[in-house]
Amino acid sequence: MPDLQPLIQLPWGRLALLFLCIYMLFCALAFLYADKILFPAPTPPACLEEEVDFFVSTESGIRIACARRIPQTPKGPVILYSHGNGEDLGHTFAFLDEVADKGFEIIAYDYPGYGVSGGEPGEEGCYEAIEAVYRHMTGELSIDPSNVILWGRSLGTGPSCHLAATSRVAGILLETPFLSAFRTLTEIPVLPWDRFRNLEKIPDIHCPSLVVHGNLDEVIPFRHGKKVHELLPEPKSFLEVDRARHNDLRHKGGARYEEVIGNFLDRFIRG
Length: 271
Hints:
271 residues, alpha/beta
């Protein structure tokens, strides 16, 4: 092993060593606490087991809670919705009802460790969860993959991008998406053990897309949404919601928000 003592004795050498120690400490903290920061599951859960419409099991045997809303006169496409990291299935019920009232069937699910789903929160668990719901939709529910539209919000854009890159779907709608979890903290990818590397999955997505992002988003920088849209293939659309932060897209977007999303969903109605 080389002798580092002469290097350390130099002024810049001490500074470099200090920087290296700080970096290693930061990396260790990122490794140990990343999941706790990314997955602040609400406690107590907002969803009760009796409010769940059905459960599916992941390949790891984890039970995933799901909610399903079917409109009286379905328009055809079925939405698979992935919620944000600070909410569980119970927080989505009003939204699911609103979507169904507009004629679209919608299915949502909880990540492992959220609500009444089993397991512990984690990136791979989220991927397994959405895969399990998709298998149930295209298998037991006999929904044609060409009728499945993915809708992900915030953290939910991670599993949505994953499924779109690995399975056949009709389209994908991404609200406040990110390039990767750690890149929301630093533009330069200096941290190992990054999570939800959407940046690496987007090249494998080959379906129509809509990206929606607020230009005052304080959680996921607006530039992430712009870059995600830039990397997605045609046909694609982008809605910039002026003066919108992370959690008030619908409020600040108003009628324009509803119109753009409605037009995107309507394009998948057949006949």
